[in-house]
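Slide 14.
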Amino acid sequence: MSTRILHVVTNVDRYESKPERATGLWLSELTHAWDRFEQQGYEQRIVSPKGGYCPIEPQSLKAPFYDESAKAWYTNPERMALLGTTASPEEINPQDYDAIYFTGGHGVMFDFPESTGLQELTRAIAARGGVVAAVCHGYCGLLNTTTEDGSLLIEGRDITGFSWAEEKAAMVHSLVPYNVEEEARRRGAHYSKNTLPFTSNVVVDDRLVTGQNPTSAKATADAVVELL
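Slide 15: predicted structure.
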């Protein structure tokens, strides 16, 4: 049986504080990892908190983030169809997957943290020795996830993810619902970041892999491959 990866994406397409401002999946954070896993011959599937349609963050379709990988996906009807028909957590058997990979984009801040379905999938995959990975805002999906013994998954763990300094640099700090870096620290995570924003940074703690920002997606996927 081949190695199987479960990608997690958002269903949210708007900021709650500014409904006219679109958000969604940061496309390259999905495509860079997908490409790397595809090279390894892994089977891949996409899940979202509600299933169905996943919107794309418009800012991720601009240079320098709209690179060859993202463009190849965005211009491929078959690939785009995968984002229109994502699975719901209830449709997924976690025993079938060797890793779960949380993508980012600001949309995830709204629907990842309270998704009990995603939490259950993550807990089950971690319990069977699978890899739990997140890039950029993807670690919002790990904030409230507990392990089988009831402790928080990220408590006492070394992690990274999109920083508050990067939120300010992107000029969206006034739009986001919370400071995810601060929330991770509040839950006992040992959070670290690169001093220079938007530079690649990956932290590996046993079988937990986190990447700081969009430029970290390839390296995050590489770390997952190494563990698998």
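Speaker note: The chain has one domain: 4-227.
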